[in-house]
Amino acid sequence: MPDGANKGSFLQGYNAQAAVDSTAQVMVAAEATQQSTDSWQLLAMLDQVKQNLGRQPEAASADAGYWSEANVTAESVAGIDLHIATGREEREEPIATASEPPPVQATAKEAMRHKLRTQAGRSIYKMRKAIVEPVFGQITRSGETSGASACAAWTMFAASGNWYA
């Protein structure tokens, strides 16, 4: 993966992905990849949730790294209430809460940005950190260097980490 700290350098690293059940606080899907961009992982993780649970999730929230118009307009996400940040918001001034529906001609990005500015959208999205971050915090692992080994280790720790929930 590209090393963000040293331009032109690469790290032997992995991008760990997890889908977490908000009620049970357990991972319902997990994957490790060498792709550094999260946006390519969203549809695969939602598909893995569907395979593992026998149904698609009712809702999903994700940070701005997962945003792409293709992700929110894909047929496979029809029926899933998505809450995906569209980019980083400047925090200089508070952003007004949206109460009206989005404009009829809104793009997918504008519609999602509007959804996240509603009271309901803000409430759902802010829970993302309380849902997924504690699960990642329960798993600490280093030293795996090969792709197959790192992916297998992540999957194993994802499964075993669920014992503690």
Structure description:
The protein has one domain (15-159). Helices cover 36% and strands 13% of the residues. It is built from six helices and four strands, in the order E-E-H-E-H-E-H-H-H-H. The chain has a two-stranded antiparallel ribbon. Strands 3-4 form a two-stranded parallel ribbon. A hairpin with a 6-residue loop joins strand 1 and strand 2 (27-33).
Determine the oligomeric state from the structure. single chain
Radius of gyration: 17 Å
Helix count equals 6
Fraction of residues in helix: 25-40%
What is the total domain count?
1
Structural class label:
alpha+beta
Largest sheet: 2 strands, antiparallel
Relative strand content: 5-15%
What's the overall average pLDDT, rounded? 82
* Total beta-strand segments: 4
Regions with little confidence, pLDDT below 50 for 5+ residues: none
What pattern of helices and strands is seen along the backbone?
EEHEHEHHHH
Largest sheet: spatial strand order: 1-2
Globally, the shape reads globular
Instruction: Note the gap between the termini.
Output: 31 Å
